[in-house]
Amino acid sequence: EGKNLIKDFEVNSNSLKKSKMRAINDVSFKMYKSRGLAVVGESGSGKSTTAKMIAKMYPPTGGHIEHYGRDIAEITKHRDLMQFRQGVQMVWQDPFGSLNPTHTIFHHIARPLLIHKKVSPSNKKELEEKVYSLLEQVGLIPPKATAAKFPHQLSGGQRQRVNLARNIAVGAEVVLADEPTSMLDVSIRAGVLNLMEEMKFEREMALLYITHDIATARYIAEDLAVMYVGHMVEWGDTEEIIHDPQHPYTQLLVSAVPDPSKSIHTKLKGNKGEIPLWTPESLGCPFAGRCTHAMDKCREKLPEISQLSDNHFVRCYLFEN
Ligand code: SF4
Ligand code: MG
Protein backbone atom coordinates (compact mmCIF):
# COMPACT_ATOMS: atom_id res chain seq x y z
CA GLU A 1 0.00 0.00 0.00
CA GLY A 2 1.38 3.38 -1.01
CA LYS A 3 0.22 6.45 0.86
CA ASN A 4 0.54 9.97 -0.51
CA LEU A 5 3.83 9.27 -2.18
CA ILE A 6 6.01 12.09 -3.44
CA LYS A 7 9.33 11.69 -5.21
CA ASP A 8 11.58 14.58 -6.21
CA PHE A 9 14.76 14.25 -8.22
CA GLU A 10 17.50 16.81 -8.57
CA VAL A 11 18.09 17.80 -12.14
CA ASN A 12 20.88 19.89 -13.60
CA SER A 13 18.96 22.45 -15.56
CA ASN A 14 21.97 24.66 -16.10
CA SER A 15 25.47 24.91 -14.73
CA LEU A 16 24.63 27.51 -12.08
CA LYS A 17 21.72 26.15 -10.15
CA LYS A 18 20.30 22.77 -9.38
CA SER A 19 16.56 22.42 -9.68
CA LYS A 20 14.10 19.77 -8.66
CA MET A 21 11.73 17.72 -10.69
CA ARG A 22 8.70 16.16 -9.09
CA ALA A 23 8.43 12.69 -10.58
CA ILE A 24 5.60 11.54 -8.30
CA ASN A 25 2.99 13.76 -6.67
CA ASP A 26 0.57 12.53 -4.00
CA VAL A 27 0.14 9.00 -5.31
CA SER A 28 -1.71 6.38 -3.25
CA PHE A 29 -2.60 2.81 -4.15
CA LYS A 30 -3.25 -0.64 -2.73
CA MET A 31 -2.19 -4.05 -3.89
CA TYR A 32 -3.74 -7.36 -2.89
CA LYS A 33 -2.88 -11.04 -3.03
CA SER A 34 -4.00 -12.75 -6.24
CA ARG A 35 -4.85 -9.39 -7.72
CA GLY A 36 -3.23 -7.31 -10.42
CA LEU A 37 -2.82 -3.55 -10.50
CA ALA A 38 -1.95 -2.16 -13.92
CA VAL A 39 -0.27 1.21 -14.05
CA VAL A 40 -0.78 2.84 -17.41
CA GLY A 41 0.71 6.02 -18.79
CA GLU A 42 3.12 7.48 -21.30
CA SER A 43 6.87 7.40 -20.69
CA GLY A 44 7.88 9.81 -17.98
CA SER A 45 4.53 9.54 -16.19
CA GLY A 46 6.14 8.03 -13.08
CA LYS A 47 5.23 4.37 -13.54
CA SER A 48 8.73 2.96 -13.11
CA THR A 49 9.53 5.37 -10.30
CA THR A 50 6.50 4.06 -8.42
CA ALA A 51 7.64 0.45 -8.87
CA LYS A 52 11.18 1.25 -7.76
CA MET A 53 9.91 2.89 -4.59
CA ILE A 54 7.82 -0.21 -3.84
CA ALA A 55 10.95 -2.34 -4.35
CA LYS A 56 12.80 -0.07 -1.91
CA MET A 57 15.30 0.88 -4.60
CA TYR A 58 14.99 4.46 -3.49
CA PRO A 59 13.09 6.19 -0.74
CA PRO A 60 10.10 8.45 -1.30
CA THR A 61 10.55 12.20 -0.67
CA GLY A 62 7.15 12.25 1.01
CA GLY A 63 4.53 9.73 2.07
CA HIS A 64 5.30 6.08 2.69
CA ILE A 65 4.82 2.51 1.55
CA GLU A 66 3.45 -0.15 3.85
CA HIS A 67 3.95 -3.88 3.53
CA TYR A 68 1.65 -5.87 5.85
CA GLY A 69 1.12 -2.66 7.78
CA ARG A 70 4.80 -1.92 8.24
CA ASP A 71 6.54 1.10 6.72
CA ILE A 72 9.18 -0.37 4.41
CA ALA A 73 11.51 2.52 5.27
CA GLU A 74 11.87 0.85 8.68
CA ILE A 75 13.14 -2.39 7.19
CA THR A 76 16.86 -1.94 7.74
CA LYS A 77 18.21 -5.07 9.44
CA HIS A 78 20.07 -7.31 7.03
CA ARG A 79 17.86 -10.31 7.70
CA ASP A 80 14.64 -8.33 7.29
CA LEU A 81 15.94 -6.75 4.10
CA MET A 82 16.83 -10.16 2.66
CA GLN A 83 13.35 -11.36 3.45
CA PHE A 84 11.78 -8.26 1.95
CA ARG A 85 13.83 -8.55 -1.25
CA GLN A 86 12.90 -12.19 -1.53
CA GLY A 87 9.21 -11.38 -1.25
CA VAL A 88 9.18 -8.34 -3.52
CA GLN A 89 10.62 -9.07 -6.96
CA MET A 90 10.96 -7.05 -10.13
CA VAL A 91 10.64 -8.20 -13.71
CA TRP A 92 12.30 -5.85 -16.17
CA GLN A 93 11.55 -4.80 -19.68
CA ASP A 94 14.73 -6.37 -21.03
CA PRO A 95 14.58 -10.10 -20.30
CA PHE A 96 18.28 -10.44 -21.13
CA GLY A 97 19.54 -7.75 -18.78
CA SER A 98 18.93 -9.72 -15.62
CA LEU A 99 20.49 -12.95 -16.88
CA ASN A 100 24.21 -13.67 -16.81
CA PRO A 101 25.35 -14.77 -20.31
CA THR A 102 28.10 -16.99 -18.93
CA HIS A 103 25.82 -19.11 -16.76
CA THR A 104 23.41 -21.86 -17.75
CA ILE A 105 19.69 -21.61 -17.16
CA PHE A 106 20.13 -24.29 -14.50
CA HIS A 107 22.45 -22.00 -12.58
CA HIS A 108 20.02 -19.08 -12.88
CA ILE A 109 17.23 -21.04 -11.23
CA ALA A 110 19.39 -22.97 -8.77
CA ARG A 111 21.13 -19.88 -7.39
CA PRO A 112 18.09 -18.15 -5.85
CA LEU A 113 16.93 -21.52 -4.48
CA LEU A 114 20.26 -21.94 -2.69
CA ILE A 115 20.64 -18.31 -1.58
CA HIS A 116 17.21 -18.31 -0.01
CA LYS A 117 17.74 -21.79 1.39
CA LYS A 118 14.82 -23.38 -0.42
CA VAL A 119 16.96 -26.45 -1.05
CA SER A 120 19.94 -27.81 0.84
CA PRO A 121 23.15 -27.46 -1.21
CA SER A 122 24.16 -31.01 -0.34
CA ASN A 123 21.05 -32.50 -1.88
CA LYS A 124 21.92 -32.37 -5.55
CA LYS A 125 19.04 -34.55 -6.65
CA GLU A 126 16.43 -32.45 -4.90
CA LEU A 127 17.94 -29.30 -6.41
CA GLU A 128 17.77 -30.77 -9.90
CA GLU A 129 14.20 -31.88 -9.46
CA LYS A 130 13.21 -28.47 -8.15
CA VAL A 131 14.84 -26.63 -11.05
CA TYR A 132 13.26 -28.90 -13.65
CA SER A 133 9.87 -28.61 -12.03
CA LEU A 134 10.11 -24.80 -12.04
CA LEU A 135 11.08 -24.74 -15.70
CA GLU A 136 8.15 -26.98 -16.48
CA GLN A 137 5.80 -24.73 -14.53
CA VAL A 138 6.73 -21.74 -16.70
CA GLY A 139 6.33 -23.77 -19.88
CA LEU A 140 10.01 -24.28 -20.68
CA ILE A 141 9.98 -27.85 -21.92
CA PRO A 142 11.70 -30.18 -22.04
CA PRO A 143 13.14 -28.80 -18.79
CA LYS A 144 16.34 -30.81 -18.79
CA ALA A 145 17.38 -29.58 -22.23
CA THR A 146 16.43 -25.99 -21.38
CA ALA A 147 18.41 -26.08 -18.16
CA ALA A 148 21.58 -26.95 -20.05
CA LYS A 149 21.28 -23.91 -22.34
CA PHE A 150 22.73 -20.45 -21.98
CA PRO A 151 20.57 -17.30 -22.05
CA HIS A 152 21.54 -16.36 -25.63
CA GLN A 153 20.22 -19.72 -26.84
CA LEU A 154 16.70 -18.78 -25.73
CA SER A 155 14.18 -16.43 -27.32
CA GLY A 156 13.13 -13.22 -25.54
CA GLY A 157 9.89 -14.83 -24.43
CA GLN A 158 11.73 -17.86 -23.03
CA ARG A 159 14.15 -15.59 -21.17
CA GLN A 160 11.27 -13.72 -19.60
CA ARG A 161 9.88 -17.11 -18.53
CA VAL A 162 13.22 -17.87 -16.86
CA ASN A 163 12.90 -14.60 -14.93
CA LEU A 164 9.41 -15.56 -13.84
CA ALA A 165 10.62 -19.02 -12.77
CA ARG A 166 13.16 -17.29 -10.53
CA ASN A 167 10.36 -15.28 -8.93
CA ILE A 168 8.43 -18.47 -8.25
CA ALA A 169 11.62 -20.12 -6.95
CA VAL A 170 12.03 -17.60 -4.13
CA GLY A 171 8.31 -17.57 -3.36
CA ALA A 172 7.76 -13.94 -4.37
CA GLU A 173 4.60 -12.43 -2.93
CA VAL A 174 4.77 -9.19 -4.84
CA VAL A 175 5.89 -9.07 -8.46
CA LEU A 176 6.58 -5.69 -10.02
CA ALA A 177 6.64 -6.12 -13.79
CA ASP A 178 7.91 -3.07 -15.66
CA GLU A 179 6.76 -3.39 -19.28
CA PRO A 180 7.68 -7.10 -19.23
CA THR A 181 6.51 -7.78 -22.76
CA SER A 182 7.33 -4.57 -24.60
CA MET A 183 10.56 -5.97 -26.04
CA LEU A 184 8.99 -9.25 -27.09
CA ASP A 185 7.41 -10.14 -30.41
CA VAL A 186 3.70 -9.47 -30.47
CA SER A 187 3.04 -13.17 -31.12
CA ILE A 188 4.54 -14.32 -27.83
CA ARG A 189 3.33 -11.52 -25.57
CA ALA A 190 0.02 -13.15 -24.75
CA GLY A 191 1.79 -16.33 -23.60
CA VAL A 192 3.96 -14.43 -21.11
CA LEU A 193 0.96 -12.44 -19.85
CA ASN A 194 -1.04 -15.65 -19.43
CA LEU A 195 1.77 -17.13 -17.40
CA MET A 196 1.80 -14.08 -15.12
CA GLU A 197 -1.96 -14.39 -14.75
CA GLU A 198 -1.53 -18.03 -13.68
CA MET A 199 1.19 -17.10 -11.19
CA LYS A 200 -1.08 -14.47 -9.73
CA PHE A 201 -3.76 -16.99 -8.87
CA GLU A 202 -1.80 -20.16 -8.20
CA ARG A 203 0.96 -18.47 -6.19
CA GLU A 204 -1.31 -15.81 -4.70
CA MET A 205 0.98 -13.09 -5.95
CA ALA A 206 0.16 -9.43 -5.89
CA LEU A 207 1.08 -8.16 -9.31
CA LEU A 208 1.99 -4.67 -10.42
CA TYR A 209 1.90 -4.50 -14.17
CA ILE A 210 3.41 -1.42 -15.76
CA THR A 211 2.57 -0.71 -19.37
CA HIS A 212 1.93 2.11 -21.80
CA ASP A 213 -0.64 -0.09 -23.47
CA ILE A 214 -4.04 0.11 -21.84
CA ALA A 215 -5.34 -2.87 -23.83
CA THR A 216 -2.97 -5.42 -22.27
CA ALA A 217 -3.84 -4.16 -18.80
CA ARG A 218 -7.22 -5.91 -18.80
CA TYR A 219 -5.51 -9.27 -19.49
CA ILE A 220 -4.08 -9.54 -16.01
CA ALA A 221 -5.17 -6.61 -13.88
CA GLU A 222 -8.40 -6.25 -11.92
CA ASP A 223 -7.39 -2.73 -10.94
CA LEU A 224 -6.12 0.01 -13.20
CA ALA A 225 -4.35 3.26 -12.41
CA VAL A 226 -3.82 5.89 -15.07
CA MET A 227 -0.82 8.13 -14.53
CA TYR A 228 -0.02 11.44 -16.12
CA VAL A 229 3.11 13.45 -15.32
CA GLY A 230 3.60 11.89 -11.90
CA HIS A 231 -0.06 12.00 -10.87
CA MET A 232 -2.65 9.28 -10.66
CA VAL A 233 -5.51 10.89 -12.52
CA GLU A 234 -7.99 7.99 -12.53
CA TRP A 235 -7.97 4.58 -10.86
CA GLY A 236 -10.21 1.69 -9.87
CA ASP A 237 -11.88 -1.28 -11.53
CA THR A 238 -10.16 -2.00 -14.86
CA GLU A 239 -13.28 -2.90 -16.84
CA GLU A 240 -15.27 0.02 -15.47
CA ILE A 241 -12.56 2.48 -16.44
CA ILE A 242 -12.00 1.05 -19.91
CA HIS A 243 -15.73 0.95 -20.65
CA ASP A 244 -16.54 4.26 -19.09
CA PRO A 245 -13.45 6.44 -18.73
CA GLN A 246 -14.13 9.69 -16.89
CA HIS A 247 -10.94 11.73 -16.71
CA PRO A 248 -10.28 13.63 -19.96
CA TYR A 249 -6.81 12.06 -20.19
CA THR A 250 -8.14 8.50 -19.73
CA GLN A 251 -10.74 9.21 -22.40
CA LEU A 252 -7.94 10.19 -24.74
CA LEU A 253 -5.98 7.02 -23.91
CA VAL A 254 -8.97 4.73 -24.33
CA SER A 255 -10.09 6.36 -27.57
CA ALA A 256 -6.63 5.67 -28.97
CA VAL A 257 -7.40 1.94 -28.66
CA PRO A 258 -10.50 1.29 -30.81
CA ASP A 259 -11.01 -2.31 -29.74
CA PRO A 260 -9.14 -3.05 -26.53
CA SER A 261 -10.01 -6.74 -26.61
CA LYS A 262 -8.26 -7.30 -29.93
CA SER A 263 -5.51 -4.79 -30.25
CA ILE A 264 -2.58 -5.32 -27.94
CA HIS A 265 -0.16 -3.09 -29.74
CA THR A 266 -1.80 0.26 -30.31
CA LYS A 267 0.18 3.31 -29.41
CA LEU A 268 -1.32 6.51 -28.21
CA LYS A 269 -1.67 8.83 -31.14
CA GLY A 270 -3.23 12.16 -31.93
CA ASN A 271 -3.32 15.04 -29.50
CA LYS A 272 0.17 15.03 -28.04
CA GLY A 273 -0.03 18.60 -26.84
CA GLU A 274 2.47 20.00 -24.43
CA ILE A 275 3.60 17.63 -21.68
CA PRO A 276 4.69 19.77 -18.75
CA LEU A 277 7.81 19.30 -16.66
CA TRP A 278 6.52 19.04 -13.10
CA THR A 279 8.43 20.67 -10.25
CA PRO A 280 7.64 21.02 -6.54
CA GLU A 281 6.41 24.54 -7.34
CA SER A 282 4.07 23.51 -10.17
CA LEU A 283 0.41 24.28 -9.61
CA GLY A 284 -2.89 22.94 -10.84
CA CYS A 285 -3.88 19.90 -12.85
CA PRO A 286 -1.00 18.39 -14.84
CA PHE A 287 -3.31 17.83 -17.81
CA ALA A 288 -4.50 21.46 -18.04
CA GLY A 289 -2.28 22.23 -21.04
CA ARG A 290 -3.91 19.52 -23.16
CA CYS A 291 -7.42 19.47 -21.73
CA THR A 292 -10.32 20.80 -23.77
CA HIS A 293 -12.34 21.35 -20.56
CA ALA A 294 -9.66 23.31 -18.72
CA MET A 295 -10.94 26.11 -16.47
CA ASP A 296 -9.04 28.83 -14.61
CA LYS A 297 -8.94 26.84 -11.37
CA CYS A 298 -7.39 23.91 -13.25
CA ARG A 299 -4.21 25.97 -13.54
CA GLU A 300 -4.22 27.16 -9.94
CA LYS A 301 -4.63 24.15 -7.68
CA LEU A 302 -4.41 20.36 -7.98
CA PRO A 303 -7.98 18.98 -7.90
CA GLU A 304 -9.02 16.77 -4.98
CA ILE A 305 -9.91 13.10 -5.39
CA SER A 306 -13.54 12.35 -6.23
CA GLN A 307 -15.07 8.91 -5.68
CA LEU A 308 -17.38 7.86 -8.50
CA SER A 309 -18.32 4.35 -7.33
CA ASP A 310 -17.12 1.64 -4.90
CA ASN A 311 -13.90 1.21 -6.79
CA HIS A 312 -13.51 4.17 -9.14
CA PHE A 313 -11.72 7.41 -8.36
CA VAL A 314 -10.75 10.42 -10.38
CA ARG A 315 -8.78 13.59 -9.80
CA CYS A 316 -10.46 16.27 -11.91
CA TYR A 317 -12.54 19.41 -11.26
CA LEU A 318 -15.32 18.16 -13.53
CA PHE A 319 -16.28 15.68 -10.80
CA GLU A 320 -16.05 17.86 -7.72
CA ASN A 321 -19.44 18.79 -6.33
FE1 SF4 B 1 -9.16 19.10 -17.44
FE2 SF4 B 1 -9.40 20.64 -15.33
FE3 SF4 B 1 -10.11 18.10 -15.19
FE4 SF4 B 1 -7.56 18.78 -15.35
S1 SF4 B 1 -8.95 19.23 -13.68
S2 SF4 B 1 -8.56 17.19 -16.50
S3 SF4 B 1 -7.65 20.51 -16.71
S4 SF4 B 1 -11.07 19.70 -16.42
MG1 MG C 1 9.51 3.30 -17.61
UniProtKB/TrEMBL annotation:
Keyword Cytoplasm carried by entry: no
Domain of life from the UniProt record: Bacteria
InterPro entries: AAA+_ATPase, ABC_transp_ATP-bind, ABC_transporter-like_ATP-bd, ABC_transporter-like_CS, Oligopep_ABC_C, P-loop_NTPase
Organism listed in the record: Photobacterium indicum
Name of the molecule in the record: ABC transporter ATP-binding protein
GO molecular function: ATP binding; ATP hydrolysis activity
UniProt-listed SUPFAM superfamilies: P-loop containing nucleoside triphosphate hydrolases
Record-level GO BP terms: peptide transport; transmembrane transport
ABC transporter domain boundaries: 1-254
Keywords: ATP-binding, Nucleotide-binding, Transport
Pfam families: ABC_tran, oligo_HPY
Nucleotidyltransferase as UniProt keyword: no
